[in-house]
Amino acid sequence: MRLRPSSLKTSFARYVTPSPRSTATMPTCGPCKLSFLHFRPLPVTIFTVIIYLALFIPLLIIHYVPPAPPPNISLKESIGVDLEETWRTLAAITKKYHPYNSRANDHVRSFLVEKINQIIEKNGNNKTEVVEDNNVNVLYVGRSDVSIYFESLNIIVKVEGSGGFEGEVGDVLVNAHYDSVSTAPGATDDGVAVVTVLGLIDYFTQPNHTPRRDMYFLLNNGEEDYLNGAMAFTEHPLAKNCRIFLNLEGAGAGGRATLFRSTDAEVTRFFKRTKYPFGSSLSGDAFKRGFIKSQTDYIIFDGELGMRGLDVAFWQPRNRYHTQWDSMAFTSINSLWHMFETSLSSLTGMANDGGYTFIQGSGRKHTGVWFDMFGRGFAVFEIGDTFIWSMCLLTITPFFIFGLFYLLAKSDKLYLLASSPKSNGPLPPKLELAGCKGFWRPFVAVVLSTSTVVGTALLIAKVNPMIMYSSQEAVWVCLISVWIVTSWFSLKIANWWRPSATARTWSIGWISLISWILLVGNAVAEDRLDVGGMYFTIFYYMATAVALFFSLLDLFFLPPTSHIYDSISHHDPLDDDDHRSLIAPSVDHTTSITPDDEEPETPNEHTSLLRDSSNLGRGRHIGRRPNSHGSLSIGAASSLPTLENNEDDEPSCSSASQCASRQYPGEQYWSRYLPRYTWILQALVLIPVPVIITAQIALIVGTSIAQTGADGNNPVTAYILYSVFTVLILLPLQPFLHRWTRHVPLFLFLLFVGTLLYLLLAFPFSWNNPLKVYFAQTVNLETGENKVHLVAVSKYVKGIVEENLPSSWVPGVKVECNDDPLRLGLQRCSWPGKMPDPVPEFGWKKWVSVNATFEGEKGGVRRTKVEVKAKNSRACRVLFERGVKKVDVRDPTGKGTTIRHKGQAVGGDVTQIRLWSREWGRGWDIDVEEDGGVKGLLKGTVQCLWSDANEPRNIPALEEVKRFLPRWAVAVKLEDGLVIGEVGFEV
Predict the structure, then answer these.
(1) Prediction pTM value
(2) Cβ atoms within 10 A of the Cβ of 212, count?
(3) Who's near 697: CB < 8 A, 6+ residues apart?
(4) What residue ranges of the chain are covered by domains with CATH 3.40.630.10?
(5) In the structure, what pLDDT confidence band is assigned to residue 4 with cuts at 50, 70 and 90?
(6) Res. 27: pLDDT tops 50
(7) Does residue 616 have a pLDDT over 90?
(8) In whole angstroms, what is the distance from residue 863 CA to residue 851 CA?
(9) Hey, what CATH class is 100-136+153-365 in?
(10) Within 13 Å and on the Cβ side, how many CA atoms surround 256?
């Protein structure tokens, strides 16, 4: 009797044992000639690894390497600016430390004024005005209980524009500060910005580059101490004309200049003109929400003057910031070129803009969302538009996905939710399709791998938290490796135990759901907090949704689930290798069969012609009995030994056409009808965009926070952020990980073990990444007692002092270490040191003179006059034992009263006033007012500051620290002054 193909499924009781004769007549199965682009281990591994490398390598290069400038000759011909001469100017102003309270500061100011006049004379521009501000004195509130008096030494250059406007449009301001801190030459903070301003003055004063708007170039003095120079400019008459600004700053020692923040989307669009844009609005949101505590002059122009503009700054590496290594040796002409090109391109747009957008009180102003793309393109959006975009994606896209599910269900092709199709006739009641198999494994893999990453990060934070200070790249490698290894291993185990052709689709679905939840968070932040730094979630979700769309489209290529049996039975078994694995092969299909536990019997229509197929969906275990429900698992024909070796091995078949139609070993039979190449499209949609956007932010955030532990910040927060971005970067890889060969995960496992051991055991600092140690010295000018103070991470500061500094070894000297009141999270160690000599001509008793006089009570107000003078210093501060109602500083020129800034009104009493003079040793007269009902006379302390460390003999304790510190540490100033002389007073 010749069997019909449909009768091949009628019995499940016995296995078929082919006879030797029938075996001899079987066609030989040769090696499978699969296309390299099929969803197989080798091509998937190679393709996905190449994608990630192709994205990571340029991102790293862009992140760390500033672009090289064109030849200097071509620059002089095209823009008329000599970049090499500008670089030499940087050398001239960074020869010495030049804080506001130093003689070197005066020399830098004179040099800059002379240089500006030379530029103007060279270009023959008689419409340019140079203003040396020696008149503005400003009194304002620094904190709620601290008043600040400052005398301006700013330099202002006005370049007159060609005009042609009807009415006022507002002028353009460019700002940089020329003072440095007392422990750094200031090459990038803010020397590169200063010489950039000189180059811009050179450009815009040339006859063929005259701007349309008037331009003001401000070189302010006193930024390092409470942003005093910019605050003084707010009271200058020229300040009221400016409506757009560009602030140039340095918060790191080299690298690329990044767009720190901007006031709005409209002004940010000028930054699109730059050839090498760099930055993310996430940094601006970090300032806005208070995650970054330090500030720049930006907040003065934005907050005090209501201007609109950009804050461009160097930002890495922070370990040389404010140290003696902030010098030309650790920056480059490439960094100078990047800041100059960025500034020039933006300013050209600002200066020649003919619109009225930036007039005060009018014009459109919207919070901006912006980011660069591979350092060459720049995207700018209004936050309202991104919110609408987010809401549309959150609402419309799910309905569209559900619509696809509905169409799949209507066409009976919803294999993702199918278990078994119905059948008519003598067939078994059900055939197992196992579409839900694989639903939970992506979620479990994400949970396991994420938990491993977070656990590893917290382990590093517990054992060796400061290692990220010098080895942030190793932290990234360690966390990325452990995530991939954990995810791959869990997915591989799941795929071995329950192989499923739907694993990739379910994984993309889970990633899309996670990104949808993140997008909800972004929409809330945009609407409630007015921050758009989570913009990456928009593109993340778009990519995952499109990838999910393509995955669902794959299912339309399948036959209806109710016809899946027909798709099997309509083939000739002799032409289908998979069918041959289910059929007892013989010449006439009526060969005798031999049951496992019985004697051979004559075959009939009730004889089983199938091997046990209950476990074909697993594709690994031969000889199991049928499923308890009597269903047939339509899996791969993996009962043949040729398919039972390894999932990484390609199956064998007798022809290329059969090879192309085979499913992957162990997976459902119907998966052979899925398209073979759409996984490539899914990978190209799912991986590049999320990785580019997210990895760029991760690099910026990682570099920004890696060295903040030395400032007292909790390192656990940094490690958590590293973990979060690690997961976000690698999530798009998960749908393809179960197809990876073992070679890459094995290599990554070894890499993880090696980097983890290094991160746990290595010393966290080096000469190239030194620990910042904050220095100050106090002198009691009544007793002559002095103390040297070093402030640093508690684990290291005491050892640094006791093991390295000879002054702490003197018999009887005790080093006292306690929590520092100024820098929370750090420890201060103090001990008697060598006496400073900031005023060589006088002994320490004559450094400061204080005279407090009670001037009487009138109208319920008690008035006291405090006179303070300090030799060889122009910075002091007065601390009152009790808060006073009001303080004022008499105009030292006698021409009028001190300008009281509009922010002078305070909600409480004043406990301190800081004093800055443009002249040396002149002093200040402070008027103090108290309520008449206050009992007792006024008492307090005067502290005068000396900040000039250019002469080693002036502060020998600092020289000792510099000389004997271990090579992995570097000294930084703790306060406005390096030496603080204290003397008490009472009326």
Answers:
(1) 0.86
(2) 17
(3) 280, 282, 371, 536, 725
(4) 100-136+153-365
(5) very low
(6) no
(7) no
(8) 14
(9) alpha beta
(10) 24
